[in-house]
Write a structure and sequence with these properties.
Number of strands: 0
Structural class: mainly alpha
Order of helices and strands: HHH
Distance between the termini: 53 Å
């Protein structure tokens, strides 16, 4: 009997939602739900952007270090192979930074 009553309640709820105009209370509930979802998304995106910023900062530090090493090695012709390896690594880091930047949306404006 409970199963039948539940089914009837479900059918009535479905009919009400599809046949009757929305009430002001229905619209307020929907607005609240949408705003909650937007807030959750914004929080997750802010966390994601923070992680991306930290990764970019780390890669930029690596790139600066490698460029310094390249500059130091340019004065010693005996280290040509090491210089070439560092240049390849610096280029790879730049490509990773560019790929990372192209995959992420811009930061949301504050507020």
């Amino acid at each position: 009997m409970r199963g039948i009553l539940r089914t009837i309640k479900d059918v009535v709820a479905w009919l009400r939602s599809h046949c009757c105009p929305a009430t002001l209370n229905d619209l307020r509930k929907l607005e609240h739900k949408i705003m909650s979802l937007i807030s959750e998304f914004a929080a997750k995106q802010t966390e994601h952007n923070g992680k991306i910023d930290a990764a970019i900062d780390d890669l930029q530090g690596d790139l600066t270090y490698l460029k310094e090493q390249i500059a130091a090695l340019q004065t010693d012709p005996a280290d040509a192979e090491a210089l070439a390896n560092l240049d390849v690594r610096a280029t790879a880091i730049v490509e990773k930074l560019e790929a990372l930047a192209s995959q992420t949306p811009p930061k949301p404006p504050p507020g």
